[in-house]
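dumping this here before i forget
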Amino acid sequence: MTIENTQECFVKLWRQLERTRRLLGGQYKRYSVRNVLRVWFGYEATDDFVWEVCRMATLGLNNGNDDEPIYGNDILPLPSLYPRKHRELLRAIVAVKLGLSIRKVSLPALDAAYSIAFPNSTSINVYKKKKLKETPSLPPRGEE
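structure:
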């Protein structure tokens, strides 16, 4: 599996994540970070690699706060319904594989790829404030 910091690669990763969830469910295995990495990378997914991915995903998710750490054996929710943890997981995988900082991974491309991979699902930025269009101002009372 080749990993790049591009939108096309992110679309493939989102779709691969859903296929992996179905594969692990069919094998009656836990849908966790460790099992996803084992399916994707085989023997390359050592304990150190899993730890590094989980550490980076936690940093991206909480911006440095350790309120909700991500562990390798935690069961992951559905990617189409709860995309935030998966977005940070994919960011961390790309960062570790390419040797980048988690901040260097293209977040707009990752979000756009999610919209392409899961067009009818929950949007990633649910709580993001929408930009309000400027309404034309009314003229002062005396000038009507």
